[in-house]
Amino acid sequence: MLIKNDLKKITNKRKKIKGINFNSPQIMGVLNITPDSFSDGGLFYDEAKARKQIKNMINGGASIIDVGGESTRPGSKTLNEKDEWKRIKKTIIQFKKNFPKKVLSLDTRKSYVMNQGINYNVDIINDVSGLRFDKKSFSIISSKKKPFIFHHMQGTPKTMQKKPIYNDVLLDIFDFFESKIKFFEKKGFIKDSIIVDPGIGFGKNLNHNLRLLSKISIFHTLGTPILIGPSRKRFIEHIVTKFDTPDRTGGTLSAVLYGLSQGVQLFRIHNVKEINQGMLVFNKILNTN
After folding, report:
1. Does pLDDT of 236 surpass 90?
2. Complete edge-to-edge strand list for the sheet that includes strand 124-127
3. The domain spanning residue 84 has which CATH number?
């Protein structure tokens, strides 16, 4: 019976979330409106530049745009919630005016910012803390019936890369997701509104990241869409060493294509157009008789 239930969870088509069809792979474009994010800090801090980047990512094939106002790079400090909201408010309002049919995700750990974003029609909440940073977060999401990305992070951005330890990173994170999803369901939240993200680079060393990526298909047993965010992550540098590049496009694409082969439905990406190009070619070759 257990095996049959697992097979059913794996094979069942994922229901649409805010119109996003997970029967084909989707790209979430990253927009960090911060001065200090690990990869693109300061590049889109200016409102006009942020708007231009949104347009570029949508034209490049992103079906979701993920906007964040607080850096969660390794070692970063917590930003005041009102300052965080102030950074992103105008961009969120403008986004919904310019692209009312596009899906907007809000990357935040704070219930205040979540609530403000929801009031301005944000579609999805993306909390890298897995709703553990702010105890009010789940009640805000649940009461507003907002889909959310359930992310795993060990520790906090300030501490997460200081010797992270697991019994087995794959099974520990799977058990974490499974138990929390059951808890959410008991509280009346519909599982079909949850996307899981194992949190590549968030409280994981190179071996942890590689084990998660190589065995990513285990998370299909949860019965939810899977998101991975390998874009420009430091694990790529640790593998390629002297062949590292600023954008790490090649390493990012490799991780994405492997994820595609394992049925991952959603990819959080900086270089949207380039990665979309690789995905389209990969899928065309894969599905040609």
Report:
1. yes
2. 194-197, 148-151, 124-127, 103-107, 64-68, 26-32, 266-269, 227-228
3. 3.20.20.20
